Amino acid sequence: MDLHAAEKPHLNGKECGTSGWDAGNCPVRDVIDRIAGKWSTLLLEALARQPYRFGELRRLVPDISQRMLTQTLRDLQRDGYIDRQVFPTKPPSVEYRMTALGHSLFEPLSKVLQWAGDKHPAVKAARQKFDEGELS
Amino acid sequence: MDLHAAEKPHLNGKECGTSGWDAGNCPVRDVIDRIAGKWSTLLLEALARQPYRFGELRRLVPDISQRMLTQTLRDLQRDGYIDRQVFPTKPPSVEYRMTALGHSLFEPLSKVLQWAGDKHPAVKAARQKFDEGELS
DNA sequence: TAGCGCTAGTCTCTTTTTGAGACCAATATT
DNA sequence: AATATTGGTCTCAAAAAGAGACTAGCGCTA
């Protein structure tokens, strides 16, 4: 129940504001909120490369709990980014595979990941500067 | 498989795994975890357009609490994406403005946001299909 | 044949994060 | 004189996430 009791999206009674830009942006938020999780991009990056099974993903991302792995994979599946295929082998195995929609998302997303890798030194420097100035 | 290792935020001193895991080689996660929050992209999108003051942002994103607005702005500032400038007016006002680093991040990021807007129908359809199949 | 591990998860408990709302001091408005 | 606005902080409750035990059927092996 815990997992399935997944929250219905944002309160819908209220529009996204009345002034200009936000009105058309609720769909964006609806989509972004799901891929903005702590683990989503990590799993998407893995599955963009190749399909993986549950246990493989768990080993690939050692600090994710089984609970969050299950939940995140299900969320990604629900939004259509990945497919879940069960093989009725002796111990049943499950394979997760990125869909076409997932790949089309990952194309722009990978640019952000690349930016993060490239600019990491600048970010680290900014952090250090900020923390020093705060110490006063 | 050099996925980003588990270097956690500054509050968490836990080292990355013990076996074959390069702690220094997970810069992507270090950066992404910060902009992957629920409110970060929303604020970045606003500030990419123009500078805003605290209260303006609060009105622009009506469902953010003051507490999270303060905290998210400070995180974004710490990572060097935005600047905070205090004007000693009668009631002191504070302006937040995107930095060059922030703009350079927003360039690839905006592509993802655009994708989200474009593909929202597909995602919604996937969700509906998933939820129907689960109902059985 | 009793024990172990593997599969993909779920269940419960605890800790962390987030949300809601009161409070702040100085000034401006009504 | 009472009230609202400025940009926050503080406390407390609710939600989300982390940790770890538990499940079932099968294969291996000691």
Automatic annotation (TrEMBL), chains A, B:
Q: Where is the HTH hxlR-type domain positioned along the sequence?
A: 26-124
- Supply the alphabetized keyword list: DNA-binding, Transcription, Transcription regulation
Q: Which domain of life is it from?
A: Bacteria
- The signal peptide here is none
- Give the Gene Ontology MF terms in alphabetical order: DNA binding
Q: What is this protein called?
A: Transcriptional regulator, HxlR family
Query: Which source organism does the UniProt entry give?
Result: Xaviernesmea oryzae
